[in-house]
Structure formats: C-alpha cells, structure tokens
Amino acid sequence: MMATQVRSRQARMRDGGRYGERVSRSKKASAGLLLWRRREGRIEVLLVHPGGPLWAKRDAGAWSLPKGGIDEGEDALACARREFAEETGFTSQGPYLPLGSVRLKSGKRVHAWAFEGDCDPAALRSNLFEMEWPPRSGRKQSFPEVDRAGFFDLEMARVKIHPAQAAFLDVLEKELSERSEP
User: Fold this and answer.
1) Residues of the chain under the 50 pLDDT cut
2) What's the CA gap between 147 and 129, in Å, rounded?
3) Which of 50, 108, 110, 167 could form a disulfide with 55 if both were Cys (CB 3.0 to 4.6 A apart)?
C-alpha cells in the first residue's frame, strides 16, 4: 500500500495531528488509521467490524476505523500504525493526513489519521481477544478483535461507521476536495 498524497506542514500542525504527540493512557484515548482509495471517481474508505458475539448481529453504526488504546507515553500516530497492523494484518505507509480527534459518549477520545492505499479486505488477519462466553458459564473463548473489513463509499460509510467517528469522514472528504481544486 503506497500513499501518494504529500502532507503539508499546515496539515501536520493541525490540533491533534502532530507527529510525536504523546497521549496519557489515563485520558482514555485511542488512535487509528483510515485507509482510503479512489475507485471509479469516488472515495472509498476501509472500515472494520468488531468481532465477538456481542457485535455479531449489529451493522449500522457498529463499524469503525481500525484503532486501539494508546499506551502510557506512546506516540499517538505510532499507536495508530500498530493497531492498524494488529487489527487488519496489513501495513500502512504515509504520508498520514491528520483528521483530528473526536470524543465518544464514553468520554474516550479517538485520534485519527488517513492514508491512501489499497488492500484486499478478504485477506484480513486480526489479533484475538478472550472473554467469558456464554456469560456466567466460566468458559473462556477467543474471538477476533475484528471479524470483517470492507471498503465503502463515503455515503455508505456514514451509515456503517460509529456515529461519533463520522466526523473523520467529513474531514477526509473536505481535505481531498480542497486538494483536487485548481
């Protein structure tokens, strides 16, 4: 996956989008990457669906960009790159376009960057997590952190993605449209 967009200094310095930004784990923060591509003149983004039995029947509003918790003192972009690889099995390559951050209802802050590239969602390889299932059974089972991935145009992505993360799609669309204007 190769990105061809050149990241401007102004874009790098936007709030929440600096390289080297360190975030404390105590702030309940996550970081993620939004992979985008152009197909038939339209922008498509890669979203992932959370794995496990609690999410099995949920669709609209359940998808997300690949993301995960930022470790104490960890660089947010480094975390986003690590989580992208862990949750998808794919590597990312900059330049990275900062999309800012959003606060979820839980109070957690999610920082995001976008990069241009391509992959085959059918080749997804996610890490596993363990939980007691069925509830109160005393049995632990392993489930993939992400059970599927797919590319969606921006209109469908707004339906699929967690509502708070839809703001990242708006920023991406604005940034890309400004770049394509003469």
Assistant:
1) 1-26
2) 12
3) 50
